[in-house]
Amino acid sequence: MIDPPLLPVFTSEVSPQTLTRRQRWIDLCFVIGVTLLPPILASANYAVHPENLQVFVGTSMRPVSYISTYVTGLAVLFYVLWKRGSDSSFFGKLMEGVDIFRGIAIWATTFLASAIAAVTYTMIYQHVQGRLPHGLDFAQILGRQFPGLFIVLLFINPWFEELIVRGFLMTELTQLTNATVAIVASTVVQASYHLYEGSWGMVQLVPIFLLYSIYYARTRRLFPVIVAHTLADYLPLLWYALHHRAR
Fold first, then answer.
1. CB distance 137 to 236 below 8 Å
2. How far apart are CA 16 and CA 166, in angstroms?
3. Structurally, how many domains does the chain consist of?
4. Which SS3 state, helix, strand or coil, does residue 209 take?
5. Contact 231, 107 (CB under 8 A)
6. Please, are residues 97 and 1 in contact by the beta-carbon 8 Å criterion?
7. 13 domain residue, yes or no
8. Mean pLDDT of the chain
9. Phi, psi at residue 93, to the nearest 5°?
10. CA distances from 161 to 24, 26, 57, 116, 211 (A)
11. 241 lies in a domain?
12. Do 198 and 47 form a contact (C-beta atoms < 8 A)?
């Protein structure tokens, strides 16, 4: 029995083997620039001016803006793959049923790593500043609008981030440089468009991004990371929704 491909097969007259290093760098800069540069710049702006984030969070256009960004980004990625004549094997091994359980294991591991980092940071911060650190509670913010577009948004988000930041960026950088550079670069890029969450958020997110990158570099399996990312996005909102309803 043949496993279904992770992505549709893209056909083109261009063979991936004919690409030069220069063409690969151009494609890489094009995809990352078009898909991630706007979120990176917006995140930096919100990090410097958090009052702008509060205004944006309160608008009804926020989910529409995010979904538009994700759909456009994936369209750009698929265009580049089509132009190259690449298929789903570009991202590594095909999807397997057991990948769901692998994804759950990755989520549990990253959750533990994030919790350890958060506790350590809290202890140090409290010792130095004399108070507890404070960050944005996105589970609470998004939980108020859990139905509707946010369910769609949180489904698309892991595919957008992992296909581009993990699958495309790491695959290209591994071939152009080495796996270590790819791991570091993917972690830094992903963290850069989460700067609006502040130091408290970064302490919790960076270990997660790093472990995702290490797993993908070692296994070339992308779907388990997508599963783990989906759980990481949905479970806090589900917890908030249930907790809020219980109250």
1. no
2. 19
3. 1
4. helix
5. yes
6. no
7. no
8. 83
9. -75, 150
10. 20, 20, 20, 24, 15
11. yes
12. yes
State the CB neighbour count (10 A cutoff) for residue 156.
16
3-state helix, strand, coil in the chain (%, to 5): 80, 0, 20
- The answer on pLDDT for 143 being more than 80 is no
The least confident of 111-125, 130-144, 163-177 is: 130-144
Is 107 within 8 Å of 227 (Cβ atoms)?
Answer: yes
The predicted model gives 5-19 an average pLDDT of 47
Residue 1 lies in a domain: no
- Residue recorded with tokens 């070339």: 220
Whether 219 is covered by a domain: the verdict is yes
Length of the chain, in residues: 247
Q: Please give the residue range of the domain that contains residue 239.
A: 19-86+98-246
pLDDT digits (tens, 9 = 90+) for 147-173: 567 777 888 999 999 999 999 999 999
**End-to-end C-alpha distance for the chain, whole angstroms:** 49
d(CA 73, CA 160): 7
